[in-house]
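User: My collaborator sent over this chain with a note saying "see what the structure looks like." That's all I know about it. Can you take a look?
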Amino acid sequence: MATLTFVYKDSTAVVGPLATISEPHSWDLCVIHAGRITAPKGWELVRHAGPLPSHTDDDDLSALADAVREGRAAGSAMPAGFSDPVTGVHGGALVAAPVRQGEQNGRKRGHLRVLPDPSD
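Assistant: Without extra context I'll predict from the sequence alone. Here is the result:
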């Protein structure tokens, strides 16, 4: 994994090790794309001299998987209007009350409606 960072002031593109923090004008790349990337015309491309890691740290990946499992095991209810992609359990529906025919004033009813605040 690598990070591509553009330094506009110097017209330089830098391909280096995966960044640990998010920065503007930077993108994370896989090793294949990091090796094939080119700089825009008129720009200089600077590559990291050492090898780039080909996979993420197993500890970080395991910690992320554990956090997802813990969140799902807590049995927290899905927010209204959403459903769990794994179980399909719905968190309720947000549906606006239908407009009665007499309230339209002869105008064509649009397809957008204002939904009530779910906290009310």
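A starting point for your reply to your collaborator: The two ends are 47 Å apart (CA to CA).
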